Amino acid sequence: MNEPVDTPDATTRWMQGYLKAWSSNDPDHINALFTEDAEYYTDPFGEPRRGRPAIVAGWLDHADEPDSFTFEWSPLMITPEMSIIDGVTRYAAGPVYSNLWVIRFAPDGRAREFIEWWMDQARPTEDS
Known about the structure:
Blueprint: H1 8-24, H2 27-31, E1 34-41, E2 49-50, H3 52-61, E3 69-78, E4 82-91, E5 96-105, E6 111-120
């Protein structure tokens, strides 16, 4: 990371790093994305994971298996301090999720705050 995030290319690099970490579950890959005191919200209204050790531990506690998903994304907004990402996660087992991510960047290009919203795209049936 360690690059200012004032261009779409910088956001793309961060997202590539996130996808690498998501696919590998390697603590070094996860750590590289976040500042020491970063906050990671897995629920926009819940308590965040604070600091890299808590982020890594929470990530690994809920890790997806490598090759169990695909993720497509596009930026909705990019500023020097923040990117908003629209994404779709498709799991091999079937669930499909819409994602909205807010990433607030430190000057060095790592995330100081990450908030994710995810919604199951499954539509209710008449039986539910």
